[in-house]
Design brief:
The protein is mainly beta. It has a single domain (9-156), classed as PEBP-like (Phosphatidylethanolamine-binding Protein), CATH 3.90.280. The chain contains one helix and nine strands; from the N terminus they run ββββββββαβ. It has a six-stranded mixed β-sheet with strand order 2-9-8-4-5-7, with helices on one face. The protein is globular and about 45 Å long. It starts with 8 loop residues before the first strand and ends with a strand. The mean pLDDT is 92.
């Protein structure tokens, strides 16, 4: 994927940058997606996508992917700058649980603290994409349209 640095900032009322993710937003709690908001998207942004990925998960595949994907959401219009908690809106991709939904952090017992990267990706064109794309399929399709991205990192470990 190409580089797309930007001044865009992603935030959540649920946790701060590098802060602990409350259990409500994990597989041990209500397992709902946290509210997210972003500011300063690149000029002329026409669409957004959201990804939540755990690069600390001990999973490497034969096709060059790594970590564990918890959420893939896309076809978000360019005039949207926030998602409410547990949002049912927009198009869901397939996570590594095999579901088209948000499934929150749930590292293996005793595996320690994991980092969860919530990414917002800004696109210069609104590309209507079919439901059920994996993170890697989504990235391949939107890469030519990517004009900005940034992340919010939260942390979680099971007791």
């Amino acid at each position: 994927m190409g580089f797309a640095p930007s001044k865009m900032q992603l935030k959540s009322d649920a946790f701060s940058q590098d802060g602990l993710i409350p259990s409500k937003f994990t597989g041990e709690g209500a397992d709902v997606s946290p509210a997210l908001s972003w500011i300063d998207p690149p000029p002329n942004t026409k669409a957004f996508a959201i990804i939540c990925h755990d690069p600390d998960a001990p999973l490497v595949t034969g096709v060059g992917t790594y970590g564990f994907v918890h959420w893939v959401l896309y076809n978000i219009p360019g005039n949207v700058t926030n998602l409410e908690e547990g949002t049912p809106k927009y198009t869901s991709g397939k996570n590594d649980f095999g579901k088209s939904a948000y499934n929150g952090p749930m590292p293996p017992n005793g595996h320690g603290l994991h980092s969860y990267y919530f990414w917002v990706l800004a696109l210069k064109e609104s590309v209507e994409l079919e439901a059920g794309l994996t993170q890697w399929q989504l990235l391949a399709k939107i890469e030519p349209h990517l004009i900005g991205m940034n992340r919010l990192v939260g942390r979680y470990k099971r007791d």
